[in-house]
Amino acid sequence: MSECTHDCSQCAEKCADREASRSLLAPANEGSEIGRVIGVISGKGGVGKSLVTSMLAVTMQRRGYRTAILDADITGPSIPRIFGLAGGTVEGSQFGMVPPKTKTGIEVMSVNLLMQQEDAPVVWRGPIIAGTVKQFWTEVFWGKVDFMFVDMPPGTGDVPLTVFQSLPLDGIILVTSPQELVSMIVGKALHMAQMMHIPVLGLVENYSYFVCPDCGHEHPLFGEGRAEALSQKHSLPTLARVPLDPKLAALCDKGIIELMENDYMEAAAKKLESLL
Asked: How many domains does the chain have?
């Protein structure tokens, strides 16, 4: 073995230090016992990641699992509003920060829960944002959780990279919409996950269609068959097709998503249960 220069990027030796440095996983809070960790991601904003994350959490909670949401979208946190949670409600304990619970018992940690004003901007640079996400994993007393959903920010930058490297993800769910441009950008997120060796569980297509209140027919406003084409291209299952649903949007605006009366996420729930 040649003399060590302590620069692994320029070294081909498989020494013990090099092997140990490959794992960047951060330890969870000592008082937490977290089962499956699922990332919800897309390559573009505005496609409904937070909505899908919330619906997945509500669906799995209804199926009897202890569920939690780690809101990693630090600069655009919308999870608290969807569940009607107020800022300044995070309490501390000897084990760490205690995440507030929704009305049905879903644990949530988001930067907006640490702030008194909901619309206060988070003007932080990338490393601080990424560090905050990591703290939500290591310094929050989650307790016993069966499924944790990580609502990621759009793109393939600091925060997704931090989540992929620091959290023990069991898989990710890609959220897309029917527009061709969005499908292309989602492909970037998919390829990032593959580069990081993270299993991709499937696709959820949001804004998939609109159901006419008069005739009851489904109308694909942004094109038909895009989810199936994307699934076939990347050999991934389509786990859900979520329509433009005014009732669902109203529930989110009122912070009562847990009252949703649909089965859009049933196939996705079965896929998640197969991981147990």
From this structure: 1
Span 134-140, average pLDDT: 95
What percentage of the chain's residues is helix, strand, coil (to nearest 5)?
Answer: 35, 20, 45
Q: Output DSSP code: residue 114.
A: G
| Residue 252 pLDDT exceeds 90 | yes
Provide the token pair at 156. 């393939």
Query: How far, in Å, CA of 205 to CA of 262, rounded?
Result: 15
- Residue 77: partners with Cβ closer than 8 Å, 6 or more residues away: 71, 110, 111, 112
- Residues spanned by the domain of 188: 34-273
DSSP state of 3: P
Q: What is the pLDDT of residue 110?
A: 96
Antiparallel, parallel or unpaired: β 171-176 and 33-41 = parallel
Host H or E run for residue 174: strand 171-176
Backbone angles phi, psi at 150, to 5 degrees: -105, 110
CATH number (domain holding residue 128):
3.40.50.300
pTM of the model: 0.88
pLDDT band at 10 (very low <50, low <70, confident <90, very high): very low
How far is Cα of residue 158 from the mean position of the Cα atoms in its chain?
A: 15
Contact 133, 122 (CB under 8 A): no
